[in-house]
Amino acid sequence: MTYKFLPDVALADIAFEAESNTVNGLFESCAMALTDIMVDQKTLRGRMTKEISLKSDALDRLLYDFLTELIVMKDVESLLFSEFHVEVSGAGSELAAVAKGEPIDRVRHALRNDVKAVTMHMFGVWEERGKWKATVVVDI
Amino acid sequence: MLPNKRSGLGVAHIDSIKQVSDVSWEIPTTYKQGMLVPAKIYATRKLLDAMDSGVIEQVTNVACLPGIVRQSYAMADAHWGYGFPIGGVAAFDLEKGVISPGGIGFDINCGMRLIRTNLRFSEVKPKVKELVDLIFRLVPAGVGVKGFLRVSDSQFDEIMKYGVKWCAENGQAWEDDPSHVEEGGFIKGADPSKVSRQARSRGIQQLGTLGSGNHYLEIQVVDQSRFFDKDLAKHFGITDPEQVVVMVHCGSRGFGHQIGSDYLRIFDGAMRKYGLSVRDRELACAPFSSKEGKDYYGAMVCAANMAFTNRQIIVQQVRDAFSKVFHRDAEAMDMHLIYDVCHNVAKVERHSYDGKSADLLVHRKGATRSFGPGHPDIPAPYRDIGQPVIIGGSMETGSYLLLGTQKAMEDTFGSTAHGSGRTMSRTAAKREVRGAELQRKMQERGIYVKAATMDGLAEEAGMAYKDISEVVDTMDRAGISKKVVALRPVGNIKG
Predict the structure, then answer these.
(1) C-alpha R_g of chain B
(2) B247 forms bridges with which residues in the sheet?
(3) Which chain B residues are closer than 8 Å to A72 by Cβ?
(4) Domains, chain A, ranges and CATH?
(5) 3-class DSSP state of A126
(6) Which of B86, B261, B284 sits opposite A68 (nearest CB)?
(7) How confident is the model at residue B199 (pLDDT cuts 50, 70, 90)?
(8) What residue of B is the nearest CA neighbor of A5?
(9) Which of A76, A77, A106 is the best residue to mutate to test the B interface, defined by the most B CB atoms within 10 Å of its own CB?
(10) B423 contact residues in A (CB cutoff 8 A)
């Protein structure tokens, strides 16, 4: 499970590429990268657990919806997460995830950028030589 | 090559680009297969050479969209965006044309608002820190912030439909505020039933919040050395070369972004249904006359009206802060709204072009309406001089107040630039300067800054942006907006 930021892709925003041996790991990597943009994960504690269930018509849309759901929870419930366990099933059409995190604490958390949306620019999920990869650009 | 890599255009690289004037260029339809109209770029030679190559790719992609009328435009501040360039303008036929979320931007009705005061800088200077610190508390900024204003679902419906008019009826605006906002404070045609549950739940808690990214709230002073037209400035109540004003730059927050995300997904499917194909997934669009097109328009207008309301609530907080610090009523300090402009929106407007007059859907993404003198949509106090145009610079460089012109009506469907435009990525800016160091340097130059995060501050450093004066001069020389006065920052709140 790993990700790296791509500094030259979006001038005003932030892009990353994630990879993993499994689809589940890929989704978890993307979620961790998203969190990393918003907060220093070391300052977060996994005090609360949230379950997320989603259905979609394609694997890339499922990832888009999953990341969007995390952004919505940040705005609506003020929650940020530091641990993710994701299971994708139904040939990439269904997701069940457990996320551990806590409400935003402006004193204790080292907050960074406020991510507002996942864009479709360069957005993609693919398998390459036994690895699952994704490119994501988020709007800041 | 990555789409926005700063290769520098180098005019020589595009054989077919034609210089129209010293500040405008045209790319003919022969440049790219599928272009229905030429593309026009406003830039000096210097700005054009520095413009990222993504702008050329994108302004010509937009020229391929069905129903586009006359020309696809890139303003002098243009830089690469999602689908359309930021600084892009395109008008579409209402029957044959499309609507595209990529032509509006995720932050629907991101815009600028300017209020005046009758305070002189000598009076405000000792209080700048106190003012900025208080406003920072009253106008929440940063990751996942919520506003102080609590509204019910039904009130939020009213806000989506009536924007600043709702504010005026609910004690959140002065009597003359709505008439000093583009479209009178709300755009007609909002349809809250087309807004998703997720968007609603994000938006309802964010009224009166500044957000983050490039959004800011600034205490500014008239720049004596760039007070271009004192007679015209009087119409805005700006008479003193030491006068203090307040500028707000923000939009519809997560609400508009969620509507953008929702409809990007819907349009991705709708394009197959209507047999549309585009060169970039972010250019997803639907016929304006289709169900999907109408639904998006209804939802987009809700976000536009929410953004007007958001800026209004923020201004109320700013008026409160000044009252507390100076122990005077905001009215006594003449804290009236000069104007509020959208720079991410699509609207149905009547325009004359090619010898005819028609209603068109004008997309402005990172572009400002610039209606000329006499236009009925300009509020009465300004109707004889043209619509106020507010152009925000980077934190360090200052901003401008301009006026719309008749030439903009003739040349660009009444549009001009919106800001300075980024030239450096966030990561690169952070490599160049640390937030704390930038804060100290700005303070040495007389600008007190308070930021939600130091990383965010570094990312918005002035060096990451184009020279705003060059951008503004280009638009002024092109005749599509007229310089009135420059405003320099003395206090800044960075989201």
Answers:
(1) 21
(2) B114, B218
(3) 198, 201-202, 254, 258
(4) 2-139 (3.55.10.10)
(5) strand
(6) B261
(7) very high
(8) B427
(9) A76
(10) 11
CA end-to-end distance (rounded Å), chain B: 32
B258 and A72 within 8 Å at the Cβ level: the answer is yes
Three-class SS state of B348 = strand
What is d(CA B444, CA B217) in angstroms, rounded to the nearest whole number? 20
0.85 surpassed by complex ipTM: yes
First to last CA, chain A: 24
Contact between chains at A7 and B79 (C-beta distance less than 8 A): no
Which residue is catalytic, options B215, B336, B375, B418?
Answer: B418
Among candidates B409, B255, B249, B253, which has minimal Cα distance to B341?
Answer: B249
Helix (H, G, I), strand (E, B) or coil at A17: strand
**B3-15 pLDDT, tens per residue?**
333 444 444 467 7
| Cβ-Cβ contacts under 8 Å for B296 (sequence gap 6 or more) | B99, B101, B194, B259, B263, B266, B267, B286
CA distance B435 to B448: 13
d(CA A137, CA A140): 10
B57, with CB counted inside 10 A (0-12, 13-18, 19+), is middle
Closest CA to B301 of B104, B47, B33, B12: B104
* Alpha carbon of B308: minimum distance to chain A alpha carbons (Å): 19
Check the CA dihedral B477-B481-B483-B488 and report its sign. negative
Asked if A131 has any chain B CB less than 8 Å from its own CB, the reply is: no
Both tokens assigned to B340: 């509020």
| Amino acid at position A74, single letter | K
Concatenate the DSSP letters of all residues of B252-317 into one string.
-HHHHHHHHHHHHHHHHHHHHHTT---SSGGG--EETTSHHHHHHHHHHHHHHHHHHHHHHHHHHH
Q: Mind listing the pLDDT tens digit for each residue in A58-91?
A: 999 999 999 999 999 999 999 999 999 999 999 9
| DSSP code for B103 | G
Write out pLDDT tens, residues B347-404: 999 999 999 999 999 999 999 999 999 999 999 999 999 999 999 987 777 899 999 9
Q: Is B249 a catalytic residue?
A: no
Q: Inform me whether the pLDDT recorded for B280 exceeds 90.
A: no
For residue B59, what pLDDT is reported?
A: 97
Q: Residues near B327 by Cβ (< 8 Å), separated by ≥ 6?
A: none
**Identity (one letter) of the amino acid at B153?**
D
Q: Which chain B residue shows the shortest CA-CA distance from A67?
A: B261
